[in-house]
Structure formats: structure tokens, C-alpha cells
Design a protein that fits this description.
The protein is of the alpha+beta class. It is built from 10 helices and 6 strands. The strands form 2 sheets. The protein has a 4-stranded antiparallel beta sheet, with helices on one face. Strand 4 and strand 5 form a beta hairpin. Helix 1 runs parallel beside helix 4, helix 2 runs antiparallel to helix 3 and helix 5 runs parallel beside helix 8. It is elongated, with a radius of gyration of 25 Å.
Length: about 300
């Protein structure tokens, strides 16, 4: 190993350690989320943990133990069939989540638990959905997962690449929502079973909120705007972009299909807060056409540009 490779190795070790810290913190938040906002409010959240929640509701068998029973075999299979780093981080999450949840059950947090008592049931769904989205986003950003359906979805999408990961997850979560319709049925005084669509709606809403928040955390902080500019003033505009916005631009020779005139096409990606400044630059030049597109994620040196 040469001296020049030492900084790279140290950086990789630091990033690896930080990924496990993120996974452990996410698991702790997830355990608090279930204990404070989910278990007492009569609905099943997404995934196999949703099934574990329904089992605890019906039998009293703890979500913590059920999560271990379900997820340890899945993580072992993921280690051999999916991705080793992904499997190890997923196992770290599942072990931390289960042990913290079991500890919280014994600790007793009744005074802090949100119990809607059947009224205003949307609020625990909103709170738990936002927290779950935060957890999903943190895990996926470091190539980990919360176990359960995340592992199954990743395996299926790896074997059947034509199947989108999120569509597979949606189908699995929809199955949980349908099952909850029957699990959370109640009986009236005459012994008649009464089915209620409220747990189904709560499960669907939880899935939507957590997916939206998780997706925003994964990609929302790296979004940017890509400008495509057709102009006869390429050098001047490029110089202004660099001086004002501290960004470069790619120049491509282009020929119009109407007049067959040769012009230059500029491609430049800027931060969202720089859109107005970019438009101000373009207004200074005639014979210039431009359009803007949103970029979901950026990599490389762009992230260090303010």
C-alpha cells in the first residue's frame, strides 16, 4: 500500500463506519416510532413488520421477537443471494431495532405513547409515516434496509430486472393492507363481526407518506436544474456562468434543422437557488434559446459547489 492510497483507504473506512452508525440510529428511531405511535392505534404499517404488528395485536407475541424470527433468515439469504454489504447493514438494523423495541416494552412509556382511542387516528399515522420515511431514507442511502419486504423486493428485482423495486414493494405492502381489513375486525354485542376499512386506509396512508419522505431524503437533497442553451454567444455566456455562478458548462456544436445554421449548445447544471441568476445571464444575449429540466441527483464535484 502506497502513501497515496492511505487517504482513500481511511475515507472508505470512515464511510463504512458512518454507514453503520446511520443504520443503528435509524433502528433506534424506528423502535421508538413503533412503541410510541403504532402499537396502540389499531393499524398495521407497511411490510413484514406490519404483519408482526398484527400478530402482536391478536396474540400478544412481541413485534421484537417476531422481527428477529422473520428477518434473521432473510438477512442470511440476502448475504448469499443479494449483496453482502447490504445484508450486513440490514442485519445490524434488525438486531438493533428488535432489542431496542423489547427494551422499550419493558421500560414502560405509557405516559409518552400516542393513543388516539379510535379518534383522530390520522395523527399517529402522519407522525409514524414521517419517522418511518426518515428511517427508510437513512438506510437506503447507506445501502441498507429495514429488513422484511425491503430484502424480498431487492431479491426479486435482482432476479427479475424487469420488475421495478418499488412496484414489488407496493404489491407486498398492499397485501398487508388487505390482511389488516380482516385482522382488525371487531365484534358487536350480538357477536356479529364488523369489518372496518379504517385500518386499510391507515396502512395505505402510512405507506404513501413513508415512501414520499424516504424518496425525498434519498434524492431530494441532491436535486438540481439542468439548462440546455442554444446560442451564438457560447463563450460569453460560459464566462458569465463561471464568474457569477461558479459553474462550468459543456459546449456541443449543433446544427438547426430549419435554417441549417451552425450554433453552439451549452449544457449546464446549477443549484435550484441559482435559477433566477442563470435566467438573468441569458437575458443579456440575443439569438439565444434555452429550456430547463429538473435533475433528480448529482454526483462528483458538483456537490462541493455552493
Amino acid at each position: 500500500m502506497t502513501k497515496s492510497t492511505l487517504p482513500t483507504v481511511k475515507k472508505q473506512l470512515w464511510l463504512g463506519a458512518w454507514s453503520y452508525v446511520c443504520v443503528i440510529l435509524a433502528a433506534i428511531v424506528h423502535a421508538f416510532n413503533y412503541q410510541l405511535f403504532i402499537v396502540n392505534n389499531g393499524f398495521a404499517p407497511a411490510g413484514l413488520n406490519g404483519i408482526a404488528t398484527m400478530i402482536q395485536y391478536k396474540t400478544g407475541f412481541s413485534i421484537g421477537y417476531m422481527s428477529l424470527i422473520i428477518n434473521i433468515p432473510l438477512c442470511v439469504l440476502a448475504y448469499f443471494l443479494v449483496d453482502r454489504a447490504f445484508a450486513k447493514r440490514s442485519l445490524t438494523f434488525c438486531l438493533t431495532y428488535s432489542f431496542v423495541f423489547l427494551f422499550l416494552q419493558k421500560l414502560g412509556l405509557e405516559q409518552f405513547q400516542y393513543n388516539s382511542h379510535g379518534h383522530d387516528t390520522i395523527f399517529p399515522v402522519l407522525l409514524s409515516g414521517v419517522l418511518a420515511g426518515l428511517v427508510y431514507g437513512m438506510c437506503f442511502r447507506v445501502n441498507g434496509s429495514t429488513g422484511g419486504t425491503d430484502i424480498i423486493s431487492k431479491y426479486i428485482s435482482k432476479k427479475k430486472r424487469e420488475l421495478n423495486f418499488f412496484w414489488v414493494t407496493f404489491v407486498l405492502n398492499a397485501t398487508v393492507a388487505i390482511i389488516s381489513f380482516f385482522v382488525y375486525a371487531t365484534e358487536n354485542e350480538a357477536g356479529q363481526v364488523i369489518y372496518n376499512y379504517k385500518p386499510v386506509c391507515q396502512c395505505v396512508m402510512f405507506c404513501f407518506i413513508s415512501s414520499f419522505i424516504g424518496n425525498y431524503i434519498i434524492k431530494g437533497f441532491k436535486t438540481a436544474c439542468k439548462f440546455t442553451v442554444i446560442t451564438s454567444h457560447a463563450d460569453e455566456i460560459t464566462a458569465d456562468i463561471f464568474a457569477t455562478l461558479k459553474h462550468g458548462a459543456t459546449q456541443i456544436t449543433a446544427v438547426g434543422s430549419y435554417k441549417h445554421e451552425e450554433k453552439t449548445m451549452l449544457i449546464c447544471v446549477v443549484n435550484k437557488h441559482q435559477i433566477v441568476d442563470f435566467e438573468t445571464i441569458l437575458r443579456k444575449y440575443d439569438n439565444t434559446f434555452s429550456f430547463c429540466e429538473m435533475v433528480n441527483e448529482t454526483y462528483g464535484n458538483f456537490v462541493s459547489v455552493k
